Amino acid sequence: MTPAIKCLILLAVVSILFVTEFIPLAMTAVMAAIACSALGLVPHNQIFLGLADSTVVLFGGMFVVGAAMFYTGLAQKIGGGVVKLFGTSENSLMIGIMVIAALMSAFLSNTGTTACLIPVVMGICSTAKLSSSRQLMPLAFAAGLGGTITLIGTPPNILANVALKAAGLEHLQFGFFEYAYIGVPITIAGIIYMMFVGKYLLPNENAEEVVEVEQEIDATSTSQSKQIICGIIMVGVIGSMATGIVPLELAAVVGAVLCVLTGCLTEKQAYNSIDWVTIFLFAGMIPVATAMNTSGAGKLIAEAVVKMLGGSPSPYVVTAALFILAVILTQFMSNTASKALLCPVGIALSTQIGASPKAVLMAILIASSCAFASPVGTPPNTLVLGPGKYKFMDYVKCGTGLVFVCLMVSIFVIPVVWPFFPAS
């Protein structure tokens, strides 16, 4: 049996366990990592390297910084301000949260944006006596959608330009705001979907129960000086992430250390604030994503789809097929991995059918950012898993509809903005 087939079987088993939650999600992820070693898909000495992955370290740091905002009472104060601005209705808050998250993630890391806003959103929900489970997933989805608006909205967007340059097509590289032609429409459509459909597919815990749970990490200090210090630390972390002065994970860890050293929260509170389910879930899936690349499983899927397209497929069929392929892959691989895998395939396909590579690549890029139907497809989804008390099927039920909305928008917008067969 080839490594690619072994990897596909493993992926099928992991998918079933994720959906059924027969065993806890984090345990499934860890067992999947061990299976990668047992099947020879990943070297033994790389199985647990995911625990040292920069994104996992970023998670840990931002959990602590976020908790400090609660312990000082800063998150609650900010929440009160947002409630006054947008009101206390579930709909108006959702609009405000999603718009802010989308705008921030268009220029900042969508992971950093989500990590920074989680404590703020929970503070808002606590103040407004609303269920945080109805607001946190929209936050994560908005961060993912906003990342499609600019070239730097999510780092993998740049991979398309890298692939074009490697193919000798530098003159076709995407501009900074060129993504906005599709990014803005799917973001707007996504917000509308969550407002009128998506939110009803999410759990709606009793507001009093939510407040009671959140009060477990409620303010232990209302010292204005500590709130100011915590605010300065948070602004510094966001500023560092935005400017790229230091790596994201370093900014998060330094911020976490400063929060403890300045007394914004105690060392014990810092340790307790880390959601270990999130840490092990994401770290455990990293070897699986690696195996998808190195075993050739991802490429095998891509080649099969390309073969199914035939000799001269319709531009709309090409868009839909590549979108669906990329969406399926990105639910279990990082969007970086799925884009890196499919961009060269997309360029080869465009050459084969005589189509514009920009149109083909944009379908891949947008789809690879639509990792909404799984908690492990993109870091923002994983970040809200614990705080929102979500199950795997919550992502499937709510996220699948959003993926479909993005597909419909992409099918109509991409061929218009980037014609598959532009006039010579």
Characterization of the model:
This protein is mainly alpha-helical. It has 20 helices and no strands. α9 (180-196) packs antiparallel against α20, α15 (297-309) packs antiparallel against α16 and α16 packs antiparallel against α20 (392-417).
Query: Termini distance?
Result: 48 Å
Low-pLDDT residue spans: 207-217
Order of helices and strands: HHHHHHHHHHHHHHHHHHHH
Our count of helices gives 20
**What amount of the residues lies in strands?**
under 5%
The major pleated sheet works out as:
none
Defining traits:
single chain, 424 residues, mainly alpha
Question: What is the compact description of this entry?
Answer:
The protein is mainly alpha-helical and 424 residues long. The chain has helices at 3-20, 25-38, 54-71, 74-86, 90-105, 110-128, 136-146, 158-166, 180-196, 207-214, 224-243, 248-261, 267-272, 276-294, 297-309, 315-330, 335-353, 357-368, 379-385, 392-417. The relative contact order is 0.16.
